[in-house]
Amino acid sequence: MKNKLFIPFIVLLLVILSACGSDSGTPASSTQNNQDTHNTQNADTTTVANPSEETITYQSEKGPVKVPAHPKRIVALTYAPNVLSLDVPLVGVDQWTNANPLFKDKLEGVTVVSEEDLETIIEQDPDLIIAGTEMKNLDKLGQIAPTVAFTWGKLDYLSQQLEIGKLLNKEQEAQAWIDDFKQRAEAIGSEIKATEGDDVSVSVFETDSAKNFYVFGNNWARGTEILYQAMGLKMPEKVEKDALGPGYFALSQEVLSDYAGDYIVLSRNSQADTAFMKTDIWKGIPAVKNGHVIEIDTEAATYSDPITLEYLLNIFKTGFLGDGSTD
């Protein structure tokens, strides 16, 4: 039960924050954004008598930010799964991360927060806030705790994990996972090519009904980074033409075959309508005829963090190679 004296304090602090942020500009005015791939972190460490107050200077996109060297109470409004993968304590996460079945057990006792609900964020007493540059309350968040904002999609999926590692003073752990993941994924890709041929192709489709279909490029989650980047599998020509640039492309059921590779990864919700799978159009696709369809759960596949990537890598390994692969 919360201390009754804490409520007036929250009200007073919110009034102060509102006054401080009333003439604020857009999030772009904040100096607490993520760094470009060409920047490197200056991990200048400030040592104090209390180790819990030790800080490092993280080089964000627009300038240095002093953050805890060993954060204990992180509110992650974005990239929460990346934080989870590094075993750093979270006290607040966004609703999308909270709803993801992969993270359910890891988020017991963690509060769902949003950028608009400053009072709930204050109640978590964070020592670090991770946000997105598009968020409108960056200045107010920065009054609550050191706040670092990342631009979604500015970095590739592995560079983003490394940046989260730098921010959390866990760069070595992040780099070790990256090196190991790349080696394992490449090895599985080589094994697939040895079995199916160097030109074996794969398409990633998603459906949320019997009418709405999408095909994805090489960096739109759903395992696309694994298949095309890490494993080096081929993308069908029409997918490359229409989906590689924008990231995804909307399709009608009638043209699915034109975009289908030798294998299909089908992302769908377990409750979604499956009537399309009984149609002659679907059954007539060569990959479907050959039993080369690998299904994944959309709700568990919309991130590109280490936890999600490991989950999907295992699914793809079994889907392409069966349980008897040598890797």
UniProtKB/TrEMBL annotation:
One Pfam match: Peripla_BP_2
Region span, Disordered: 25-50
What highest taxon heads this organism's lineage?
Bacteria
The subcellular location is: Cell envelope
Composition skew (Low complexity), residue ranges: 31-47
Signal sequence, start to end? 1-21
Key word Transport present: yes
Which residue intervals define the domain Fe/B12 periplasmic-binding in the entry? 73-324
Q: Which InterPro entries match?
A: ABC_transptr_periplasmic_BD, Bact_iron-sidero_bind
- Keywords of this protein's UniProt record, alphabetized? Signal, Transport
Q: Which Gene3D superfamilies match?
A: Nitrogenase molybdenum iron protein domain
Protein name according to UniProt:
Iron complex transport system substrate-binding protein
